[in-house]
Design brief:
With 339 residues, the protein is mainly alpha-helical. It folds into two domains: 132 residues, Cytochrome c-like domain (Cytochrome Bc1 Complex, Chain D, domain 2, Orthogonal Bundle); 140 residues, Cytochrome c-like domain (Cytochrome Bc1 Complex, Chain D, domain 2), CATH 1.10.760. It is built from twelve helices and six strands. A hairpin with a 4-residue loop joins strand 2 and strand 3. Helix 2 crosses helix 7, helix 8 packs across helix 10 and helix 9 packs across helix 10. The protein is globular and about 55 Å long. The structure holds heme C (2 copies). The site of one heme C (HEC) has 24 residues, from helix 4, helix 8 and helix 9.
């Protein structure tokens, strides 16, 4: 019957129009990405994940992320699963299972990759990026992409990214920059800040406090043999300072900082001045040298400044020179997460 048919068509059209705005948002976002504010985002709950095969993989990824040293740490019984070189957990840095804004959260991360990464000078997949932290923050070896552990990490991060469109601009990703003092960091003053504010948990020697049970830490080390290596993002002063200011002491959030910007800068200067494992081959990082974050503590550099100044600042002169050399608006910006 023609009436019913056209009624059906009209209904169909109305339905299409009703769903259009949402679809159009995503389509039009090709030029102008949607913005998702992670500081107002309700993270998913791991207890809601199902018992089917995909749920099991997500829950294994969550376990790997939060209990890393007992799963793939250097001291576990199963030698074939020893991938980390230290006893840190991913969550020791990516707080609250990767859900804390400005603690390098991994919510929405799936839609941020593949991504050009200056450190490798090429397009990285999410698996490559996870292995970046495996080889540096965990001072370990890369997980083969077809290994169950890698698939679990990726499934977990996919689950964390549910509801966030591919390529969205994420507010709350990475770390929040500090207001950088116009001087080099003062590690001697940083040592005082450390003694008063950090050592009650992380210990006078920075070695942390081991967990009562198992391989991990109650308070993780900030330097020394069981810490991240010198190629890790946390080994750069501006990343460590931003992280500390907006997340430490534990319980601090980006909008309730306890330290001053200057104290965060100095305490980070003290921490990056300590001994930690050294990664080989770091001279091959950042093949486009002028894309190197200005606080990278290892050379070679293309801007003529010393290693010492790259390690502790002052950074304004370096930034100005690199800006002159490249024309980049924010040269040597911290390489500390999706934005
Ligand atoms: C109340 C205890 C406490 C205090 C005080 C504290 N932290 Fe932490 N910190 C922690 C805990 C616990 C973690 C690991 C968090 C987790 O696993 O959920 C951590 C993690 C970290 C990390 C990342 C993990 C690592 O091993 O590097 C850094 C960096 C850090 N803290 C720096 C600092 C600095 C700098 C200070 C002083 C300004 C400080 N913390 C004060 C408890 C504390
Ligand atoms: C010592 C601290 C630390 C630990 C431990 C750590 N990470 Fe990271 N991670 C970082 C920092 C800092 C960044 C930001 C990039 C940078 O500066 O290198 C980062 C970035 C990432 C990113 C990219 C985030 C983005 O926004 O683009 C992923 C994915 C990631 N880490 C996964 C992991 C996994 C998986 C583990 C455990 C196997 C882990 N990380 C352990 C410090 C850490």
């Amino acid at each position: 019957m023609p009436t019913t048919g056209s009624h059906m068509q009209r209904l169909a059209l109305i339905l299409i129009l009703a769903t259009l705005p949402a679809a159009a948002d995503l389509v039009l976002s090709a030029g102008q990405p949607v913005t998702i504010d992670l500081t107002g985002w309700t993270p998913p709950n791991i207890t809601d994940v199902g018992q089917d095969a995909s749920g099991t993989l997500i829950r294994y990824g969550y376990l790997l992320f939060t209990d890393t040293p007992n799963q793939i740490g250097p001291d576990i019984a199963d030698i074939s699963r020893r991938f980390s070189g230290n006893n840190l957990a991913c969550q020791n840095c990516h707080l609250r299972a990767g859900m804390q804004p400005y603690a390098m959260p991994l919510i929405g991360i799936q839609g941020q990759f593949p991504q050009y990464r200056a450190r490798e000078g090429r397009i990285d997949t999410l698996g490559d990026r996870i292995n970046g932290c495996m080889e540096r923050s965990m001072n370990g070896r890369p997980l083969p992409l077809d290994k169950r552990e890698m698939k679990a990490f990726i499934a977990f991060m996919g689950w964390l990214s549910n509801g966030i469109p591919t390529g969205a601009r994420l507010v709350g990703a990475g770390t929040l920059r500090i207001k950088e003092p116009q001087r080099g960091a003062d590690p001697a003053h940083g040592a005082e800040v450390y003694r008063e504010t950090c050592s009650p948990c992380h210990g006078a020697t920075g070695a942390g406090v081991r967990a009562k049970n198992g391989a991990g830490y109650q308070f993780p080390p900030l330097w020394g043999v069981d810490s991240y290596n010198n190629g890790a993002g946390m080994a750069r002063i501006l990343t460590a300072a931003a992280y500390a200011l907006h997340n430490m002491p534990l319980g601090t959030t980006f909008n309730t900082p306890l330290l001053t910007d200057a104290d965060a800068y100095d305490v980070a200067g003290y921490i990056v001045s300590q001994q930690r494992p050294r990664k080989g081959g770091l001279d091959r990082d950042f093949p486009v040298r002028l894309q190197k974050p200005i606080d990278t503590p290892y050379g070679p550099y293309a801007d003529g400044f010393t290693q010492e100044q790259h390690r502790l600042g002052p950074f304004a002169p370096i930034r100005m020179k690199v800006r002159q050399m490249t024309g980049a608006a924010d040269p040597g910006a911290p390489d500390n997460g999706s934005r």
